[in-house]
Amino acid sequence: VDKVEATFAAHPEASTLAFVHAETSTGARSDVAALCALAKANNALSIVDTVTSLGGIELKVDEWGADAVYSGTQKCLSCIPGISPV
């Protein structure tokens, strides 16, 4: 979050913050609420990749203020590939 904040300060023209919610190979999890709040504070849209997390860990799209969220069905949802919830 601190690095993103510094990047917004260095690039005030940035209009979008896109990031991955969770990464299966490393177990890393982004602080969606903090990152979306940071995007909003900098007049940027937030786009959250939830391909590996949707259905597996907490995701509060409205409460955390995410502007756009997308996923896939073949990972955590364990459904057939080729469908993309948005």
Task: Note the overall shape.
Answer: elongated
Question: In whole angstroms, how far apart are the ends?
Answer: 24 Å
Structural class: alpha/beta
Poorly predicted runs = none
The DSSP helix count reads 3
Oligomer status: single chain
In percent, how much strand structure appears in the residues?
Answer: 15-25%
Q: Round the Cα radius of gyration to an integer and report it.
A: 13 Å
What is the ordering of alpha helices and beta strands? HEHEHE
- Number of domain modules: 1
Strand order of the biggest β-sheet: 1-2-3
What summary fits the major beta sheet?
3 strands, parallel
Q: What is the strand tally?
A: 3
Mean pLDDT: 94
Fraction of residues in helices? 25-40%
Molecular structure report:
- The chain has 3 helices and 3 strands.
- The chain has one domain (2-70).
- The chain is of the alpha/beta class and 86 residues long.
- The chain has a 3-stranded parallel beta sheet, with helices on one face.
Task: Compile the SSE list and pairings.
Elements: H1 2-10, E1 16-20, H2 32-41, E2 45-49, H3 61-64, E3 68-70
Parallel strand pairs: 1-2, 2-3
Task: Briefly say what this structure is.
The chain is of the alpha/beta class and 86 residues long. The protein contains three helices and three strands, in the order αβαβαβ.
Primary descriptors:
3-stranded parallel β-sheet, alpha/beta, single chain, elongated, about 90 residues
